[in-house]
Amino acid sequence: MSATLATGVRAGERRAIARALSAVENETGAGADLLRALHPHLGAARVIGITGPPGAGKSTLVDALIGELLALNGRVGVVAVDPSSPITGGAILGDRIRMGTHQGDERVFIRSLASRGHVGGLSRSAARAVDVLDAAGYAHIIVETVGAGQSEVEVAELADTRIVVLPPGLGDDVQAIKAGILEIADIYVVNKADLPLAERAERELLSMIALRSYGAWKPPVLRTVASTGVGVAKLAEAIAAHAQSGSGRRAGGDARRTRMRRLLAASAADRLRRNIEQSSSAELDRLCDELARGELGHAAADLRAIEIAAAGMRKP
Ligand SMILES: Nc1nc2c(ncn2[C@@H]2O[C@H](COP(=O)(O)OP(=O)(O)OP(=O)(O)O)[C@@H](O)[C@H]2O)c(=O)[nH]1
Ligand SMILES: [Mg+2]
Predict the structure, then answer these.
(1) What is the DSSP code string of 159-211?
(2) Would you say the CB of residue 98 lies under 6 angstroms from ligand 1?
(3) Among 174, 158, 154, which residue's Cα sits nearest to residue 166?
């Protein structure tokens, strides 16, 4: 079964792709066989992550961006991830998906994923959906996530280029947005630039960026009006520039393993952080005291904390 399905996916047959997506999302044995069959054919796609607060205009922006990317080359796949929606049958996420313009386009495949409980599970589902679309030959795969915090960061780890979309009017609240989502961006977009305060939001972001040090790629701040398409061509250019810069998180030879590594790093780091912050451990308390008294170097303390936390997590 999986061999025929894999052939259909690689030929870009929509029904095969839809069936394959269902198989891999449900973590069935057939899904695992299918992914094995597709594995040698991964790595050509460029994965673009789009994240930001609810209502920022992400889906509208994705819709406009699809048009720009189609004009450049190839086909476009979209995985829309919504950690806040419980799964309801086939889970069409209704209002959250505003990509109607391209729904009937043969070159575009849009798939929605809703929460099945654990967020880590959701980001793994998203990773598998990306694999299927990659194998099916979609040159660009956009992953849209809504929500705040860890779930966004985790899903964004799938992406080669990570875009954070913010609406204007956040003002000083930019600082208050969970640091995580601001820190992951390769490109910042102030959407709804037709509304007042867009310039101010742009300035806020620019001053935040000025305080940080970057490698070869410094995240640009762009303004868009997704609902009319203003600025979206510039966004497509910035995405291409990021892909071409050496700092692009290009997936390389084993794309799937690279994606898994990123997901693993994000979820393992999250578990570790929570454990070190929250577990009641006399050993960790002692370690903090030693550190506070300057009796221990930071590198040694980090290692010790990781060991204590790991031992604590192994206990039933
Ligand atoms: N004025 C203005 N409205 C916009 C713009 N872009 C999107 N909107 C509107 O903002 C609302 C939210 O847009 P969505 O694209 O659904 O936003 P989203 O970030 O995907 O929302 P969630 O998926 O629910 O988090 C819709 O009513 C859009 O029409 C824009 O550039 N300007
Ligand atoms: Mg949306």
Answers:
(1) -SEEEEEE-TT-TTHHHHS-HHHHHT-SEEEE--TTSTTHHHHHHHHHHHHHT
(2) yes
(3) 174
Flag residues of the chain having pLDDT under 50.
Answer: 86-96, 250-252
Q: What is the pLDDT of residues 33-84, one digit of tens each?
A: 898 899 888 888 999 999 888 888 999 999 999 999 998 878 999 998 876 6
Contact 201, 171 (CB under 8 A): yes
Ligand nearest to the CA of 52: 1
- Say how far residue 44 (Cα) sits from the centre of its chain: 18
Q: CATH number of the domain at 43-252, please?
A: 3.40.50.300
**What is the bridge-based pairing of β-strands 161-166 and 46-51?**
parallel
Give me the residue spans of the domains in the chain. Answer: 1-41, 43-252, 279-314
Planar angle of CA 62, 63, 64, nearest 5 degrees: 90
Place of tokens 């903090």: 288
Among 170, 227, 234, the mutation site with the greatest number of ligand 1 atoms within 8 A of its Cβ is 227
pLDDT for res 124: 78
The reported pLDDT for the residue numbered 17 is 96
- pLDDT attached to residue 187: 95
Is residue 25 within 8 Å of residue 60, measured between CB atoms?
no
